Amino acid sequence: MSEQTSTRENFRRATVPDDNGFFGAYGGQFLPPQLEGPFAEITKAYHEIENDAAFINELRYIRTHFQGRPTPVYHARTLSLENGGAQIYLKREDLNHTGAHKLNHCMGEGLLAKYMGKKKLIAETGAGQHGVALATAAAHFGLECEIHMGEVDIAKQAPNVSRMQLLGATVVPVRHGLRTLKEAVDSAFEAYLADFENSIYCIGSVVGPHPFPMMVRDFQKVVGIEAREQFHEMTGNLPDVVEACVGGGSNAIGIFSAFLDDPVELIGVEPLGRGTAVGDNAATMTYGMPGVIHGFKCYLLQDEEGQPSPVYSCASGLDYPGVGPEHSHLKDTGRVRYVTASDEECRDAFFALSRKEGIIPALESAHAVAHALVTAREMGTGTVLVNLSGRGDKDMDYVIENWGIGQDS
Ligand SMILES: *Cc1c(COP(=O)(O)O)cnc(C)c1O
């Protein structure tokens, strides 16, 4: 181990991943041979532009004038008071353009495509959130956009399909297998393979083959950089604890990355769904074992043959059987603690934040709030900063149908 340099230095030069895309034992590039070339091209282009002044300035301009950054940090006084414990603060990614953190990396990926001279963005989407964010980026940059989506998801997510189409994207229905996310991934990969000269494949979280876990993390770092500075300005201190929900892990790594070298406890919250049985949750780090999915190694919910297990959460953005390789590494090193919140705890936090603070959170983000309430009570005093990754407008139909609105908390 080399001697620790200053925080700032570490911050600029991340020590992971290595040149092959490994975060400790996790990550890498498990690709069909035909895709090795195209992914090497993306890696090379990213390393060229990541320190390029023109690229950085354009991304900064976009963040300020298109996305509306910086998003604020908000002291949830009433919620904290009623909860009776440590003070809870929220990093308001729900106020980012399109209502969630996902646009942070989609704009980065779109800008990279533009610098590489690509004409088209290709991706899959499950619930449609990544598809909408990417279609937004494509519209902004004047790029074509092709979103692969299972027929079952298309039927379930009609408003997001309309949004993508309104933004100019082509939604490609995937009609084989279970007609959901897994088939959509295969379909998007095939489309990219057939047209990698003109297009770029854009992954929706800190997952997939190298360089995506690194690139998406770097684009999401803005969340942590802003939050650390804002929190310090508000309180004169750093938070005692930082919490975020973990699906693939992009919003969590975005905020954690700024605090890795600080004496701050970091907690990732996974969905416990309906319970501990296989197929009832998506708590990858809690119940998974190392394995390979979608071209990279990570903690994985899997059967004896290494096939991904079925997963479930009321928050569709969290139900992925894998997780980012950097999170897998951070679990093994012990730097981040991974815990769970159930559908019920998510529901209670969803209503509490809506009623007490006038903020309707995404169901994904409500998982982080739910566990932060537990942490804050246990601590008694001190501060907890939560990454509020998105707003709950998209979840209103689900909430009303399943939980009603008359709940009094
Ligand atoms: C997609 C999504 C998530 C989960 O993705 P991560 O990569 O784990 O951040 C969390 N919150 C919101 C609002 C989302 O849309």
TrEMBL record:
Presence of the UniProt keyword Amino-acid biosynthesis in the record: yes
Record's GO cellular component terms: cytoplasm
Superkingdom, natural source: Bacteria
Reaction equations catalysed: (1S,2R)-1-C-(indol-3-yl)glycerol 3-phosphate + L-serine = D-glyceraldehyde 3-phosphate + L-tryptophan + H2O
Positions of post-translational N6-(pyridoxal phosphate)lysine modification: 102
Record domain Tryptophan synthase beta chain-like PALP: where: 68-390
Keyword annotations: Amino-acid biosynthesis, Aromatic amino acid biosynthesis, Lyase, Pyridoxal phosphate, Tryptophan biosynthesis
Pathway assigned in UniProt: Amino-acid biosynthesis; L-tryptophan biosynthesis; L-tryptophan from chorismate: step 5/5
Cofactor: pyridoxal 5'-phosphate
Enzyme Commission number(s) from the entry: 4.2.1.20
CDD domains, A to Z: Trp-synth_B
GO molecular-function term, one example from the UniProt record: tryptophan synthase activity
Enzyme's top EC category: lyase
Family: Belongs to the TrpB family.
Assembly and interaction partners: Tetramer of two alpha and two beta chains.
Entry function: The beta subunit is responsible for the synthesis of L-tryptophan from indole and L-serine.
Protein name listed in UniProt: Tryptophan synthase beta chain
Species of origin: Demequina lutea
Upper lineage: Bacteria, Bacillati, Actinomycetota, Actinomycetes, Micrococcales
